[in-house]
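Incident log, support desk, overnight shift.

02:14 A customer reports that sequence design results differ from what the structure should imply. Their input is reproduced verbatim below. On-call engineer (initials T.W.) acknowledged and began investigating.
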């Protein structure tokens, strides 16, 4: 497997272990990989370095949290939205306790597909896969080819292992213990 490399260009600086971080239980690679495998537009994922919990915050609620004042009660929102906004407020007010998980750009699923294509030893299959990821509709065509050739499990395993490598590098960069 090709080393994926963690995109450190987007990161402002290396995070050291602050007070309280030493007691955090190791994070689950599988839990983070599962989050990275189902990105949703308009959402960010953060790891709370003190608790080890992963929170998903809708960008809309982050904006509300950033503009809120201490006395805001958010009563104009539904109960479930109030909870989501309070969670976003916690992220904003305690930014040092959180680190953002790799995003869609850092994971780059297209690159993972491309690397999988080139990893195939069978020339015909490799060419079909490479052709399938060219242009609009690449993800659908790629999926169709792997299903037609019965290599879904091979693809799923390759993708999972690649995501694990991305998460391991991300954890090591941020000095976060993992299991």
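02:41 Re-run completed on a clean worker. Output:
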């Amino acid at each position: 497997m090709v080393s994926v490399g963690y995109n450190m260009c987007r990161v402002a600086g290396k995070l050291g272990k602050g007070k309280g971080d030493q007691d955090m239980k190791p994070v689950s690679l599988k839990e983070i990989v599962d989050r990275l495998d189902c990105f949703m537009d308009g959402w960010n994922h953060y790891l709370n370095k003190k608790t080890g919990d992963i929170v998903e915050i809708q960008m809309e609620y982050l904006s509300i949290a950033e503009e809120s004042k201490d006395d805001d009660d958010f009563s104009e929102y539904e109960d479930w939205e109030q909870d989501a906004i309070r969670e976003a407020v916690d992220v904003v007010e305690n930014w040092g306790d959180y680190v953002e998980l790799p995003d869609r750009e850092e994971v780059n699923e297209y690159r993972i597909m491309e690397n999988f294509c080139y990893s195939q030893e069978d020339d015909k299959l490799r060419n079909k896969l490479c052709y399938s990821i060219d242009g609009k509709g690449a993800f659908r065509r790629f999926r169709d080819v792997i299903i037609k050739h019965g290599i879904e499990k091979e693809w799923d395993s390759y993708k999972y292992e690649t995501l694990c490598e991305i998460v391991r590098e991300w954890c090591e960069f941020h000095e976060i213990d993992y299991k």
